[in-house]
Write a structure and sequence with these properties.
about 0% strand, Apolipoprotein acyltransferase, transmembrane, transmembrane helix, mainly alpha
Length: about 55
């Protein structure tokens, strides 16, 4: 669940950042994909940490 939430938040944040920098549609898509991947990786490590700490 944390990974999916991270992907959605990362895509939103990346697209918003590109929009504020006056990027075109493809720029927004690229930023959204990059930030979604980054936030997914962070969410993955966070999920692993939570599951390991719960045991």
């Amino acid at each position: 669940m944390i990974v999916i939430l991270g992907a959605i938040l990362g895509a939103f944040f990346g697209a918003l950042l590109a929009y504020r920098r006056k990027g075109r549609r493809l720029d927004m898509l690229q930023y959204a994909a990059g930030y979604a991947i980054l936030f997914m990786i962070i969410g993955l490590f966070l999920t692993i940490f939570v599951h390991r700490a719960a045991v």
